[in-house]
Amino acid sequence: MIAPRLSLLTIVAIGLISSSSHGAIYKCIKEGKVIFSQTTCPNDFRQHEIEFQLGFTKVTDSDKLKQPKDPLLVLLNQQTLSKDKLLQLVDDEVFRLKQEIAYYKILKRSELQKLERHRFWQKQEKTHPEYVKAQAQLENHFNELTTENQTAIEQLLEHKNSIVENPN
Predict the structure, then answer these.
(1) pLDDT(131) > 70
(2) Distance between alpha carbon 10 and the CA centroid of its chain, in Å?
């Protein structure tokens, strides 16, 4: 008897989620009773927010903080990481960002080739305004991504140097 009731609740929840205009419903819980609502729960109920977006469902305990603390920042603030471990984490992140930059270069080259093939089959000149504009947009997009990563790498390296120089 429990299984059909559970599946019925699931169907009702999915129906409420799909009919909700902003993609969020609330699961209100009090004394073992569960109520689904499109508005926030009364104060005497425990509340879980259920968001449905692009085929994914995200359940958040709305009674708790909306913005959870970053676990890495918590560790850094409590200084529970050893200096060597912290340096290794910084080096790993720098390595990951450098790999991402290399990936962006490959992706940029691929997108430019795709744009060039499109231009060729459309029998447009290389100076065609539409082609030049699309090429500039691609260049700007990937240059921005690369610049963001380069900036992050520089900040991480500065942080690494401050860790190395600071004996504490």
Answers:
(1) yes
(2) 27
Task: Answer with the residue of higher pLDDT: 32 or 71.
Answer: 32
82-101 burial by CB neighbour count: b if 16+ within 10 A, else e?
eeeebeebbeebbeebeebb
Pick from 33, 34, 116, 135: which is nearest to 25 by CA?
Answer: 34
Q: CA angle at residue 161 from 156 to 167, to 5 degrees?
A: 130
What per-residue confidence (pLDDT) applies to 31?
Answer: 86
- pLDDT at site 56: 60
On whether the CB atoms of residues 128 and 158 are closer than 8 A, the answer is no
Q: How many C-beta atoms lie closer than 10 Å to residue 28's C-beta?
A: 20
